[in-house]
């Protein structure tokens, strides 16, 4: 029983020590286009355009030519995100994973995470 407790405490210590390193994965960029309410294109510091899907956000899809028309409220969602990023195009991208060739990330601007609750320090 004492061995299990020691292992569990050790795992928690390793996780606690590792948490600050996850912020090191974040990178600065500039929003150059808004595809829809949950997908943006961000230019990184090396000048590469990277498609980014907002982590934890699911918005109606815009029209896909030859496939389907725009879903209800898709344009409103796109315009809302565009209005946010037009005022503050400089962002910090914190990757959380990858999906369908896009980076899935939390996007932060002006000290506030758009699709999350905590502030960026």
Structure write-up:
There is one protein chain. The protein is of the alpha+beta class. The chain has one domain (27-113): OB fold (Dihydrolipoamide Acetyltransferase, E2P), CATH 2.40.50.90. The chain has 2 helices and 6 strands; from the N terminus they run H-E-E-E-H-E-E-E. The chain has helices at residues 2-22, 74-87; strands at residues 27-36, 39-44, 49-54, 90-99, 102-109, 112-113. The protein has a 5-stranded mixed β-barrel with strand order 1-2-3-5-4. A hairpin with a 2-residue loop joins strand 5 and strand 6. The longest helix is centred in the first third of the chain and has 21 residues, at 2-22. It is globular, with a radius of gyration of 18 Å. The N and C termini lie far apart (40 Å). The model is unreliable at 16-22 and 117-121 (pLDDT under 50).
SSE layout and pairings?
Elements: H1 2-22, E1 27-36, E2 39-44, E3 49-54, H2 74-87, E4 90-99, E5 102-109, E6 112-113
Parallel strand pairs: 3-5
Antiparallel strand pairs: 1-2, 1-4, 2-3, 4-5, 5-6
